[in-house]
Q: What sequence folds into this?
């Protein structure tokens, strides 16, 4: 399922899930808990997962295409740019629960890193994708990989960090990824 979330998020998400200690603050937020601009889509996906789990969903698959906002002094004013702010498009996905709906012909197996890896390979096909051990503030240190295409890092994939899984009161760790959208669209026609 595709989600469309606000670009205004909780400052806690930025610190914990994006590793951003200095997010872009809003002068006049629409709500007190939505006081900063997001630099990652992962916080919104975790919030939507929590919302679905509160309504007894056992199996959740989410993705979002959206803009993120990062301070960058090298960006100049233009028709589609604002001085001092880089605004790239990203795609992020999250999988939680069983791989397939319960049925007699398959064993009950929870989603794992390799399922998300397969989704990323399908998304970036036909190009060769390389996965290297990586680190991301939102992801488990030993269960995270950086995604490389043509010797360029285009994103990360991994399980939610145990500290954040516990902090957001999730029974199991979801597997998630976030990629630069330009990398997904860069292909020969």
A:
């Amino acid at each position: 399922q595709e989600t469309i979330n606000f670009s205004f998020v909780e400052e806690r998400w930025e610190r914990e899930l994006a590793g951003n200690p200095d997010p872009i603050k809003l002068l006049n937020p629409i709500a007190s808990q939505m006081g900063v601009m997001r630099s990652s889509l992962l916080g919104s996906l975790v919030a939507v997962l929590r919302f679905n789990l509160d309504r007894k969903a056992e199996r959740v698959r989410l993705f979002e295409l959206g803009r993120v906002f990062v301070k960058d002094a090298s960006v100049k004013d233009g028709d589609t740019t604002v001085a001092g702010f880089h605004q790239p498009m990203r795609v992020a996905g999250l999988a939680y629960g069983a791989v397939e709906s319960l049925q007699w012909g398959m064993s009950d197996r929870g989603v794992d890193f390799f399922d998300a890896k397969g989704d990323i390979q399908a998304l970036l096909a036909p190009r060769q994708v390389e996965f290297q051990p990586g680190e991301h503030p939102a992801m488990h240190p030993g269960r995270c990989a950086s995604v490389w295409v043509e010797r360029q890092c285009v994103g990360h994939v991994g399980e939610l960090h145990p500290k954040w899984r516990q902090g957001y009161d999730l029974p199991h760790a979801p597997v998630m990824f976030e990629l630069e959208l330009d990398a997904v669209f860069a292909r020969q026609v």
Remarks:
- Residues 1 and 62 are 5 Å apart (CA to CA).
